[in-house]
Amino acid sequence: MTNTSPAASPTRVDFWFDPACPFAWITSRWLLEVERERPLDLRFHAMSLYLHNVGNELPDWYRELVDKSIGPVRVAVAAAERHGEKVLRDLYTAFGTRIHERKTDDFDAVITDSLAELGLPADLASAAHDPSYDEAVRRSHEAGTEPESGGYVGTPTIHVDGTVWFGPVLRAIPRGARAAELFDSFRVLASHPDFFELKRTRTGGLSFD
């Protein structure tokens, strides 16, 4: 049952995404499911796989993805500068639907079509290849870091109840009451001051259904 109680105080959740990351996409869709079941103040922010992997040795296929991932991120921060951060929710959905669900690997086409879908200025697409936006990307990226360590925990990153987390990393999108149940359980773990990691080996492919 959806929680519609006017007395419920929304939980502030800040979510950092790179449009190219499939795990961020799944986590974001989970949070949108949670939003239907729990009172959330859910805010979207851009981070960068490119910045996160500066200096890292990567397999060729992943390096290619990381290198081109900066384009949609630049466009996201450019759109947020011009239209406010609230634009990021719908822009990310437009990007992610094309990249992850429709398997479009031409990111320039993803950007052009997404801007057109949302009625955003077409000239924002030029930001994808404009390094002058990289400082704004860095500011948004670094806002997601863990305050005490100054380190980045990964993508996706969420801030909830004053704590910073990598994940939850999910193979598929929980829906409805199951999504809310996972969020409630996550908050219990996140509230424990000494808890910092829980992990197991992933099996099976990813599902965006």
Overview of this structure, please?
The chain has helices at residues 22-37, 49-52, 60-83, 87-101, 107-118, 134-142, 176-190, and strands at 11-17, 40-46, 157-160, 163-166. Helix 1 crosses helix 7. The protein has seven helices and four strands; from the N terminus they run E-H-E-H-H-H-H-H-E-E-H. The chain has 209 residues and is of the alpha+beta class. Helices cover 45% and strands 11% of the residues. A hairpin with a 2-residue loop joins strand 3 and strand 4. Strands 2-1-3-4 form a four-stranded mixed sheet. The two termini are 21 Å apart. The model has no long low-confidence stretch (mean pLDDT 90).
Number of helices: 7
Instruction: Give the biggest sheet.
Output: 4 strands, mixed
Class inferred from helices and paired strands:
alpha+beta
Strand proportion, as a percent range, falls in: 5-15%
The helical percent reads 40-55%
Low-confidence stretches: none
Radius of gyration: 17 Å
Order of helices and strands: EHEHHHHHEEH
Tell me, briefly, the overall form.
Answer: globular
Task: Please state the average pLDDT score.
Answer: 90
Terminal-residue CA separation: 21 Å
What's the arrangement of strands in the largest beta sheet? Answer: 2-1-3-4
The number of distinct β-strands equals 4
